[in-house]
Amino acid sequence: MGPQHPMTHGLWTLKVKVDGETVVDTIPDLGYIHRGVEKICESRDFTKITTYCDRLCYASANTWSHSYIYAAEDLLEVEVPERAEYIRVIAVELQRIASHLMWLGAFCPDIGNLTAFVWCLREREMMLDLLQELGGSRMHYNFPRIGGVKRDLPIGFAMRARAKIKLFLDRIQETEQLLDESTVFLVRTQGVGYAKPEEMVNWGVTGPNVRAGGVNYDVRWAHPYSVYDQLDWDVSVERPSIKGADSYDRYRVRVDEMRQSALMCLDALNKIPGGAETHYSEGDPMIISKAKERAEEGKTGFHHFEDSRGESMFYMVGGGDQRGKHPYRISIRSPMFLTIPYASKCMIGYKVADIPAIMGSFDPCIGETDR
Amino acid sequence: MVFSLGIKTRGEYAEEAAQQVIDAAIVRWQGTGLEAEVRNHKSGMARPYVYIKCPRNHWRAVAKWLRFEMGADHCSMITGIHWPDGPDDCKWEVVAHLMRMNVINPPERGGWTKQVIRDPKILQDDDVPMEFEVSISIPDTRNPSVQSVQEVWMGADWNEKETWDLVGIDFEGHENMRRVLQPHDTPVGFHPLQRQHKIRYHDFEVMYDDAQGFGRKAIDEGKTK
């Protein structure tokens, strides 16, 4: 199956060995859009790399650039103003909602429910509007900066964000009802692709896929990096059956996570120091602090980050070309790079027709996988 | 005056747990040359992590010890660095990032499962989520290699494949080593993240005149396919 197949959600090939209708063995074949981001970054300034990190995943650009920024701040030893951290949380959580909606929108047509696709994209549009106000663009925002954020919250943003998030919370309920009462959706997702949490973690699968297995592990919960420990939120956990989490559990946990992200945004808008309605101009120390340009040789920085698909991570080594202006080495940990092999093994024993329902429920994204 | 009432904060529990790992490592790996210390992230909240400098010939044993005794159940990333100008005993480096997630299968309760819900503020000792960074130096050699930990973590499998594919560090005992990100017909011995391979814009500070680079020749033109 692939590289051009509706199941793949990108460019990759799944070699499937079948016995009649049953899947016997699978081999994933990746690397179709390997662009060498790690190599390119070795000859770029720290500030220029953010743009490349945005392009790692088109559905969830903000989380990836933030993931890089936190690692760069660890390398360059930068303290970030608290207001900037709150703005980052808002940006990342809005992006997480948009990413999960994109996933749901792409997953439902795979298994025969076209209506949900249109509904999800309609709600995603609201999130993209809000992100456009922050970053200035619809897909690739280039929003965070080392030491803070590019711009403050625009005037009136809090009001519009609150209204749109409340509308979203109503509408996600509609979508949920649509799917939970759709026989086609239930029949195709329930009881396929069982996965147990211990096995998943051993394979390197993280994020919503593990939380669907009934374990409340989240990087934001275990290693709270930004202001996540000051906000009011719960880790969304699903209650799986004895056999493990199936595709339906993975759908449920993502819907719940969207709701938690929305509540987190509302909470951050209330708690943001200085108030959500005040506006600082660009370069104000309230939203961005001074950062060094160079990293000395022998310094390293890394940061585990909760991406919308799992735990992403950048490992950076300082002291590259231009007397430390460039990183010596950047290594990217993509959650999907390890999840795709697991998902491919997970579908052994099921029917060929179940492959889209299992693969899609793991939320594959090939841009970040191939880097 | 501060009344602590004997209740420790989350950060103190984390530091305590990190120190316990260090103490255990010093006792267990005495005489092997293994070094371990607690380090802190330098941005944001002070979060300790465990840094281990592991001798090359003990890596698989240390990995098993970390996995089964220290509870590092998640292999986050294994990556390699090429240091052509580095000291003789560290021309290549393999860095592994591990995590202690303490994920268990939810227990069964009456035909259904019970969710595993933990409160991070009261986790202690072995239960504290912890980050590990393990660094392994490889001396100057034509064929750099370390032991494979494929059998310890399934997740290490694809990480090691990627490291060999891009950096060219081999893993002894790795089954089914193959190209994952590069094409299958990539020339043998070509690993793009080694430092002798330069990208087209290398050493060009200003590239406005020819942003696409059509006018320039690749440095390695004629040498690769």
Tell me the number of structural domains of chain B: 1
Quickly give the structural class of chain B.
Answer: alpha/beta
Largest sheet features of chain A: 3 strands, antiparallel
State the shape of chain B: globular
Order of helices and strands of chain B: HEEHEEEEEEHE
Task: State the fourth-level CATH superfamily of chain B.
Answer: NADH:ubiquinone oxidoreductase Nqo5 subunit
- How large is the share of residues in beta strands of chain A? 5-15%
CATH level 1 name of chain A: Mainly Alpha
| Poorly predicted sequence stretches spanning 5 or more consecutive residues of chain B | none
Total beta-strand segments of chain A? 7
Radius of gyration of chain A: 20 Å
Under the CATH scheme, which architecture of chain A would be assigned? Answer: Orthogonal Bundle
The dominant shape of chain A is globular
Q: Roughly how much helix do the residues of chain A carry, as a percent range? A: 40-55%
Strand order of the largest sheet of chain B: 1-2-7-4-3
CATH fold group of chain B: Beta Polymerase, domain 2
Helix content of chain B: 10-25%
Q: What profile does the largest beta sheet of chain B have?
A: 5 strands, mixed
User: What's the overall average pLDDT of chain B, rounded?
Assistant: 82
Q: Which architecture of chain B per CATH?
A: 2-Layer Sandwich
Find the structural class of chain A using helix and strand composition. mainly alpha
